[in-house]
Amino acid sequence: MNKKMIEHKFSNYLLVKDQFLNSPDSVVALSDKQVYTKSEIYPGLRTENLFDIADQATRDFAEYFAQRIKHNVFPGLTTFMLDLRFHINESFSDDVANIGWIHSDPSDLAGLVYLTPHENNFNTGTSIFHKKNPDDFATEDFDSRLHFNKSNQITDTYKSEIRQNWDNFSESVRVANVYNRLVAYDAKLYHRPNNFKTSIGQPRKSLLFFIKGFSYTDTFDKNACKWKDQ
Q1: Would you say the pTM of this structure is higher than 0.90?
Q2: Which of 2, 46, 130, 202 is most buried by a 10 A CB count?
């Protein structure tokens, strides 16, 4: 369906911040204790929302991360709904299946922290894309994609349809997958994971977050500036 572009305080926002977590190895250890499941909605394996997990240490980390988001990533947020999950991308022998679909997220804000120790590679990071045609277009949720996400079955139809998806876009930003790097963005920006197969042979791990419905306090006083950006 056509995606309505909703403007908000962080429209077109893109932030990259290295060494985001003070103790990333502890977070990786926490992620290793979680239960992961597959879904037709996304490729790979993902946990429940960390706020819904019974383990107290996991919920304590989720609360900590929410505060970091509020103060260090999207300054000015007052209240917001945060969906926070650990994610593991599986890799495949077929190179086409290792590249993600270009998409936007059904939330207001989104991002991730890369959690594969020792990885430092542009090809396994995240790219931002522009549509080649500025007009809106209907984005089909292909049955082949839903089936692949659930079953890992790579069909000729899947490979044809994912290439159709890529053909609609041109790459505008490429962010390398660097351990403990945070990438945060306006969720309406088109993006994809560039490759699921890391350069060091370890799984592509990340911490994903999605924010829906936020309130914001603007701390920028335009009246205090002589320059008028208009």
Answers
A1: yes
A2: 46
